[in-house]
Amino acid sequence: MYIATVPNRHAPPAMLLRESFREGGKVRPRTLANLTSWAPERIAALRRALKGEVDGLSGDLPPTCGPIVAVLFVLKHRADRLGLTRVLGKGRRAKLALFLVLVRVAAQGSRLAAVRWAANHAVAETRGLGRFDDDDLSAAFDALAPRQAPMEETLSRVSRRQTGQSPTVVLSDVTSSYFEGECQALAAFGDNRDKKAGKAQSVMGLVTTGHGEP
Prior knowledge:
The protein folds into 3 domains: 1-57, no CATH class; 65-167, no CATH class; 168-214, no CATH class. 40% of the residues lie in helices and 21% in strands. It has 8 helices and 5 strands, in the order βββααααααααββ. It has helices spanning 40-51, 70-82, 84-88, 92-106, 111-118, 123-127, 134-144, 148-163, and strands at residues 2-6, 14-23, 26-34, 170-179, 200-209. The strands form 2 sheets. A 3-stranded antiparallel sheet has the order 1-2-3. The model has no long low-confidence stretch (mean pLDDT 83).
């Protein structure tokens, strides 16, 4: 891996974390993360780490904790292989929709919970997203609704090409219920779909095969 400086005619140069890979006998670069928003000292520290200058470093240095990178990084590459990233597109709403898909894999919860989850993870560095809220995530999915059928067909073709067979069809539905009492271990406060303020809720889902079997 290495850090590349990419010129930009209308903005400061972009700082990208890249790796080289071989494809068809040629060596090509792959961008792993956009570091443009990082502070210069963080980029300098990463350069040193990539060169091995801090291997075996010890001492009484105080620990530092930045945003978590690995979860979104790994899931994003999985989405790339499945063709999901390409199908959704490159715009901001497409990135928001992909983020919500990835966070559902990493941490089940509502869209509001996804926003809170993002506060501790490197969303800006790995997905190039600035601040957003649950309304932004809802709008992103609403914008994708008219494209659902062609996107599903494209993903199906990708799956058949990669595995040699049609993908397994899985059907799912989700509902929620709020509680008046305080003794429901599975209930928690969140973004209530029933618009019932101040009540703990529980979200329930049903997953079946394409034939409707649970």
